[in-house]
């Protein structure tokens, strides 16, 4: 395959950015999108040019590092991560635009790399449980009903990639935050911090400058792990319940 790439290039957070055009040839349909970018970077290095900076780690669709907007879609045309997107999703001769996440809370560091530590600070605000130290408890010491375990696992699948923020017209982080809150709220281990967790994490999310949620649904459509939109509604109910309790 021969492709025309239009890639966002930005030297640093303070420098202006622009789309640069490159041509890559010999691309196999079985390559992942990141392997295609590796091929581009090999060509650039051989020509004495600066390679394109982009985030990646596991390349197995688990870590959520591969944050790319491909032809206007977070992670590209398939509902998967960019590292698991294969070039057979495109046609020979296609022009492909590759950009970083676009959100005020995700400033560009360089090229396609953005700073997503805002997510870390939301987690630090309440994404944990209190657990006594000492020997490990028996596996069945705290029984969890199957529906609750399934609901917790559904939300635990969130990999924190930020596609929900990039896809949202408001740049909202509600789907990410709700996934982390609902994961722990569904389990008995998360009960002690249930009220403070939702209040603190939502407050941290607002402080980071993410946009407000208007339930357009783009976040759930773009989520590679299928976190459902009702997760946000469940979090809102948790927040209202906790807020009323605090006011008393």
Can you walk through the features of this model?
By secondary structure, the protein is of the alpha+beta class. It has helices at residues 33-46, 117-126, 146-156, 163-167, 174-185, 194-207, 218-222, 230-247; strands spanning 3-9, 18-24, 69-70, 73-74, 95-99, 108-110, 113-114. Strands 2-1-5-3-4 form a 5-stranded mixed β-sheet. Strands 6-7 form a two-stranded antiparallel sheet. The longest helix is centred in the C-terminal third of the chain and has 18 residues, at 230-247. The protein is elongated, with a radius of gyration of 20 Å. The termini are far apart. The mean pLDDT is 95.
How would you summarize this macromolecular structure in one to three sentences?
The protein is α+β, with helices and mostly antiparallel strands. It has helices at 33-46, 117-126, 146-156, 163-167, 174-185, 194-207, 218-222, 230-247, and strands at residues 3-9, 18-24, 69-70, 73-74, 95-99, 108-110, 113-114. The strands form 2 sheets. The chain has a 5-stranded mixed beta sheet. Strands 6-7 form a two-stranded antiparallel sheet.
């Amino acid at each position: 395959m021969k492709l025309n790439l239009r890639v966002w290039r930005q030297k640093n957070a303070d420098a202006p950015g622009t789309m640069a055009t490159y041509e890559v040839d010999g691309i196999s349909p079985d390559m992942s999108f990141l392997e295609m970018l590796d091929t581009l970077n090999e060509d650039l290095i051989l020509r004495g040019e600066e390679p394109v900076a982009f985030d990646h780690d596991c390349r197995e669709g688990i870590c959520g590092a591969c944050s790319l907007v491909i032809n206007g879609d977070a992670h590209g045309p398939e509902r998967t991560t960019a590292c698991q997107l294969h070039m057979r999703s495109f046609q020979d001769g296609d022009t492909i635009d590759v950009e970083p996440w676009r959100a005020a809370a995700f400033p560009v560091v360089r090229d396609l790399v953005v700073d997503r530590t805002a997510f870390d600070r939301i987690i630090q605000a309440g994404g944990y449980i209190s657990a006594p130290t000492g020997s490990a408890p028996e596996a069945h010491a705290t029984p969890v009903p199957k529906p609750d375990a399934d609901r917790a696992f559904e939300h635990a699948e969130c990999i924190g990639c930020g596609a929900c923020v990039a896809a949202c017209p408001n740049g909202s982080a509600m789907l990410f935050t709700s996934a982390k809150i609902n994961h722990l709220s569904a389990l008995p281990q998360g009960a002690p911090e249930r009220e403070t967790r939702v209040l603190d994490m939502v407050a941290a999310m607002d402080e980071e400058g993410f946009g407000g949620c208007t339930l357009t649904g783009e976040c759930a459509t773009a989520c590679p792990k299928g976190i459902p939109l009702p997760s946000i509604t469940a979090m809102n109910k948790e927040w209202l319940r906790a807020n009323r309790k605090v006011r008393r």
